[in-house]
Amino acid sequence: MKGAMTQISGFLAWLVACSSLSWSGELPAEAFSHLRSEEFKKRESAQAELLAWARERPEPAIEELYRQSRSADDPEVRERCLGILRDLVNDEYLKEGEGFLGIQMQQPNDIVNVPGDPKPRMAVRVTLVMPDSAAEAAGLHVNDLIAGLGDHVWHEGLAYELFREEIRQMKPNTKVTLKVLRDGKLLDIDVKLGRRPPYADTMFMDLRQVDPQALERAAKDAYFRRWLERRKSRE
Fold it and tell me: How far apart are alpha carbons 72 and 168 in whole angstroms?
């Protein structure tokens, strides 16, 4: 009997925790309670667990986490909820903006003959592949000739400008197929585009004057601040 009463008490405590958070779905209440733990590792683990949970249901989770970041009685809970919010908003940041391949291109165009195309094409020669870029991940090489982007080919005009603008008009994580001439063979190379970084326009001028990581952090911080301002304006 005593054991049964203990189980019932535990279940009721769980229901109270859920109702106090105004949450209508499944809530990892235990992880949330561990944000108050005296053990640092337990607090870190709980924050990671809540982030993984929130990423499965970002829209409703964001609302609840925002509420807790403003109203929880424990400053540790408020701060950690804000940290989870920052990660969720950063996920959105990475999905927005312009597409980015991560190459430097030679100007002017190369004029090439492509197997199966009776007309000469304008092609983009790759002169540099950025480390940790979409281009590097896809296996692009210096001196590759990009002779098409999906179904788009260029028989006239400035191919490097047309190619650059098409890439920028796409969203990050867009999958594209490049038609690449390499050693006389036409290859289809699939690429998953990255997000155009804030330092993109200066990265090839003098990298010694640019701290890419610092600029990216600043851009994410500014994006999160704007998100918070918009969210607060709705209150």
Answer: 42
Parts of the chain with a pLDDT under 70? 1-27, 201-210
Cα separation, 74 vs 55, in Å, equals 24
- Is residue 46 a contact partner of residue 34, using CB atoms and an 8 Å limit? yes
Helix (H, G, I), strand (E, B), or coil: what is residue 82?
helix
Contact at 8 Å (CB) between 86 and 178?
Answer: no
pLDDT digits (tens, 9 = 90+) for 114-151: 988 999 999 999 999 988 899 999 999 999 999 999 99
Which domains, ranges and CATH numbers included, belong to the chain? 2-95 (1.10.1240), 99-195 (2.30.42.10)
If one counts every other C-beta atom within 10 angstroms of the C-beta of residue 149, the result is: 21
Does the N-terminal peptide bond of residue 120 adopt cis geometry, omega within 30 degrees of 0?
Answer: no
* Cα–Cα distance, 69 to 79 (Å, whole number): 6
Type and span of the H or E element at 70: helix 58-71
Task: Report the residue count for the chain.
Answer: 235
